[in-house]
Design brief:
The complex is a heterodimer of chains A (about 290) and B (about 400). With about 290 residues, chain A is mostly helical. In chain A, about 75% of the residues lie in helices and about 5% in strands. Chain A is built from 12 helices and 2 strands, in the order H-H-H-H-E-E-H-H-H-H-H-H-H-H. Chain A has a two-stranded antiparallel ribbon with strand order 1-2. In chain A, helix 1 runs antiparallel to helix 10 and helix 5 crosses helix 6. The longest helix of chain A has 30 residues. Chain A is globular and about 65 Å long. In chain B, the strands form 3 sheets. In chain B, strands 7, 8, 9, 10, 11, 12, 13, 14 and 15 form a 9-stranded mixed β-sheet that branches. In chain B, helix 6 links the parallel strand 7 and strand 8. With about 400 residues, chain B is of the alpha/beta class. The longest helix of chain B is centred in the first third of the chain and has 21 residues. Chain B is about 40% helix and about 20% strand. Chain B has 14 helices and 16 strands. The chains are: A mainly alpha (about 290), B alpha/beta (about 400). At the A-B interface, helix 1, strand 1, strand 2, helix 5 and helix 8 of A face strand 8, helix 7 and helix 8 of B.
Chain lengths: ~290, ~400
């Protein structure tokens, strides 16, 4: 019984983890249709921001929730102005450009921070469930993701900002004719995506440590999750994270981590074969 | 004043001859020596201290007048943690630079990439990293420790201290897989039991499920053979789950990647490891070695682990044997290396003629506040694992890495 509860909490933490590392990509790729291969490096930058902020004496929670998103949003703003905005609508070109960006960011981070694992200790410690104990920090992550997704849903569905953003993504020309400046909307949306990636990196920093090449480990998972999720970025990402993380964790539990990863990938392939437009392209259509 | 033609010719001839005289008298052709270690890329944390010790050893030989009256010239290559560059650089070192010896390789994969090349070109090769054992090659010398030297001592120590139920977590490539087999073997030899084991690809960063599985198995100790940056997250997540100190941890690679320095004391205190060298060893030889290293590198002095110290030993063995041989001729140097003994910072190291591995002292240490406290030392441990499969006296042409069968 205790093992079952522990496992359930582990599954929840894994879902939150997958949703968090995918959320920034869901905005940039899912919403804006920009293939951002530098997504993993945005996460990495968020991680470094949190670590250095914490070392400068800033409270760890402020570092995670404020410093990292703002810092990566600023980097995202500059990159969008310099590189990305010239390439909207050109899928292959954005892919090449962002791949180049990812290499450049890894190189720059290696030069600045050195190629070694940096980290801060995770706050909070563990909670006991009978004879088991799990990380409280991982459970905080679950709540953070719940709040984040709920807020995203409310903003996209019920506010003017959300309406303008959705409209611009669907038909920039029509939005422009109604007085919206699509360029600004795109820039803003890209920054939101970058900020979410930064938050993910900040949150991961105490759990997994930060190294310039860490992004590679996350970018593929994030893409799989967003593509499996389908058209509706919030509902889709939430559903696909839940499904894939559950399958992966349960498989890891009964077999080995290698098999767990394989099963996760196979599940994604099978899902896309059955639902080629992703979960929300076929069911739950029209959700944000 | 008249100058005769003959005198003129003599003066001119003398002037022309000066460079030749000078070269042979003051600056004999340097002996080229190659170092191939990753100082960038994912393995740089291992490579940088090794290269620091290589630099120190070569500098000291040059300060003492070089070898055979010739200075040493170190040709350094950085393969950037890329196996393909290893093969390129080993070929360049042997053919283009015609070096007298190569020191290099960190992972078993990089060693097995360059060892056959250097064997083919008959360039003596030293591999200074601790590894899983089994290499049998007359042209190659392994100065690092193997499982029969470290795991064999560590298992009885930790099972006596903590209990007989062991859970193994290891990196999923030949180092982790083979070392885990040795842990199982020595566990069996000591009446202990392996209650679970798990292998992780090097890019895995999520350990929550594994931590629950370990808790469910209730082992007396966890034996870690995890390697590299991503795997360091295990120790963080272990601490975050409140497990630090609840189930103790033993390892034969924790610390050589500076894990005990990067992690906080709360996350790393109490881990027990076994190596042929600890920076904290309390002997005069070691203190002198470390102060020479500090004099050379100052603030940039790296933490010296077994890999780095054994790089120094490798150079020392080679230099001693070249002096003894009196020439650089490969076969004479190899013969002089077999049985070569060096007293160094980690104690006495003797090259075993039949395996080309070293007989050396092994120490057990416990992490305490970013450093190791040495608990026990064992004199002159033999590389008996490799000796079981390798006899270069009998089969001098042997040239492979054996996977030693340990009966499971």
């Amino acid at each position: 019984m205790e093992f079952a509860i522990t496992t359930l909490l582990n599954v929840l933490a894994a879902i939150a983890n997958l949703a968090l590392i995918s959320s920034g990509l869901a905005v940039i790729f899912g919403m804006m249709r920009v293939i951002n291969l530098a997504h993993g490096e945005f996460i990495m930058l968020g991680g470094f921001a949190t670590i250095y902020a914490a070392r400068m004496g800033i409270n760890i929670w402020i570092a995670i929730f404020v410093v990292s998103p703002l810092f990566v949003a600023a980097v995202g703003y500059v990159l969008e102005r310099l590189v990305i905005r010239h390439l909207y609508g050109r899928l292959v070109d954005t892919m090449l450009a962002t791949w180049g960006l990812s290499l450049a960011l890894i190189g720059a981070a290696t030069m600045i921070f050195g190629n070694r694992v940096e980290g801060v200790a995770a706050p909070l410690g563990g909670v006991s469930i009978g004879q088991y104990s799990i990380s409280l920090y991982g459970q905080v992550e679950v709540w953070v993701v719940l709040v984040l997704f709920a807020a995203g849903y409310l903003v996209l569905k019920y506010t003017e900002v959300g309406l303008v953003a959705r409209a611009t993504m669907q038909n920039p020309a029509m939005a422009a004719s109604l007085g919206v400046n699509p360029s600004r909307v795109y820039s803003f949306t890209f920054c939101v995506g970058a900020a979410l990636s930064g938050l993910a990196g900040g949150f991961l920093a105490p759990l997994s440590g930060v190294v310039p090449t860490m992004g590679v480990a996350y970018v593929a998972r994030a893409f799989i999750t967003v593509i499996t999720g389908g058209l509706s970025i919030l509902v889709g990402t939430a559903l696909s994270s839940s499904l894939l993380a559950t399958i992966g964790t349960v498989a890891t539990l009964f077999t080995t981590p290698v098999v767990g990863d394989v099963v996760l990938l196979v599940a994604a392939i099978v899902l896309l074969r059955l639902l080629p437009k992703g979960i929300t392209g076929s069911i739950f259509r029209g959700a944000p | 004043m008249t100058i005769s033609r003959r005198a003129m010719l003599q003066v001119m001839g003398g002037t022309l001859a000066v460079p030749y005289v000078a070269r042979s008298a003051f600056a004999a052709d340097p002996i080229k020596v190659a170092g191939i270690f990753d100082v960038s890329g994912g393995l740089d944390i291992y490579g940088q201290p090794m290269v620091a010790c290589l630099d120190l050893a070569i500098d000291e030989l040059n300060a003492a007048g070089g070898l055979l009256g010739r200075p040493l010239q170190l040709v350094k290559y950085d393969p950037q943690s890329d196996i393909q560059l290893y093969t390129q650089y080993a070929t360049a070192a042997a053919t283009k630079e015609k070096v007298a010896v190569v020191f290099g390789g960190i992972t078993s994969a990089s060693r097995e990439a360059i060892r056959p090349i250097l064997h083919r070109y008959q360039t003596p090769y030293f591999y200074p990293a601790l590894y899983e054992g089994g290499v049998c090659d007359r042209n190659a010398f392994m100065t690092g420790s193997t499982p029969a030297q470290t795991i064999e001592k560590l298992i009885p120590f930790v099972t006596k201290k903590w209990g007989k139920k062991i859970y193994i977590i290891a990196a999923d490539y030949n180092y982790g897989q083979i070392s885990a087999k040795w842990v199982r073997k020595y566990a069996r030899d000591n009446g202990a039991e392996v209650v679970g084991e798990e292998f992780f690809p090097l890019d895995v960063t999520e350990f929550g499920t594994t931590i629950s599985k370990i808790q469910a198995a209730k082992p007396d100790l966890v034996y870690s053979l995890l390697v590299g940056g991503n795997h360091m997250s295990f120790f963080r997540q272990w601490a975050a789950a409140g497990m630090s100190g609840k189930i103790p941890m033993a390892s034969t690679d924790f610390g050589v990647g500076n894990e005990h320095i990067v992690l906080t004391p709360k996350e790393s205190n109490g881990v027990i490891a076994a190596y042929a060298y600890f920076q904290e060893l309390d002997n005069l030889e070691n203190k002198a070695f470390l102060s020479r290293l500090r004099a050379k590198f100052g603030d940039k002095t790296p933490y010296v682990n077994e890999l780095a110290a054994e790089t120094w030993y490798a150079v020392a063995h080679w230099a001693r044997s070249v002096k003894a041989a009196g020439k650089l001729d490969r076969d004479v140097v190899l013969a002089a290396l077999e049985g070569s003994t060096i007293d160094g910072p980690g104690g006495k190291s003797t090259i075993d003629p039949s395996t080309h591995h070293c007989k050396m002292d092994v120490h057990i240490g416990e992490v305490k506040n970013h450093a190791f406290v040495v608990l026990e030392s064992y004199a002159q441990q033999a590389p008996s694992d490799t000796a079981a499969v390798c006899d270069l006296k009998k089969n001098p042409n042997d040239n492979q890495q054996y996977v030693i069968s340990v009966g499971n």
